[in-house]
Amino acid sequence: MIHTILFDLDGTLLNTIDDLADAANWVCAQNGWPQHTVAEYKYMVGNGIPKLVERFSPAEARTPDRLAETLAQFTARYDAHKEDKTAPYPGIPELLKELKAAGIQTAVFSNKADALCGKIIEHYFGPGAFSAVRGSRPGVPTKPDPTGLWDLMRQLNADPATTLFVGDSDVDILTGHNAGLPAMGAVWGFRGAGELTAAGAEALAFRPGDILDYINQQKG
């Protein structure tokens, strides 16, 4: 029986890729660098914003000082425009309501900067939609390292035996497994069924309602 579900954010709950790509390409344009397609950015995200910045920066702009400058530039631009095109995936708000009605605890665990996570979740889902929202914090390794996830589970009093991790990339599946949890792949996200299956996802969700079906199967 599943009592707690921990969700990835980008590509799982919210389709954020267009706002991320727009902010990144704005930074690239400001610096005279080549820009990238949205499809390319889908494979640059997933390991946190500092890693995204490193990936879209040309090789000659990857010194520590330059990356720090670019990170600040990107963060300011993205924070100001993070709600231009972003939206919940169809069926996600309804899923969250059904989970709450069923007494299932939900939380968010993301590699996005912690301050950005809280603001964007509250904007789209309202205050108190999740028991906790946790993003990347200084001094805590990013996913797929399980350290931050274990801290979150302790905060929630979540039992690993009754907890499920849901995400849209191999990073998320590995995060769940590294924490000793089953991991379900959100096929509607940025990476698709092939990557999720190859990473060893216990199950795939092609639509949010499939998560409810999986939970109900665990009851038997």
From TrEMBL:
InterPro entries: HAD-like_hydrolase_sf, HAD-like_sf, HAD-SF_hydro_IA, HAD_2, HAD_sf, PGP-like_dom2. One of its GO terms (molecular function) is phosphoglycolate phosphatase activity. GO terms for biological process: DNA repair. It comes from the Bacteria. It holds the Pfam family HAD_2. Transmembrane segments: none annotated. GO terms for cellular component: cytosol. This is Phosphoglycolate phosphatase. It comes from Faecalibacterium gallinarum.
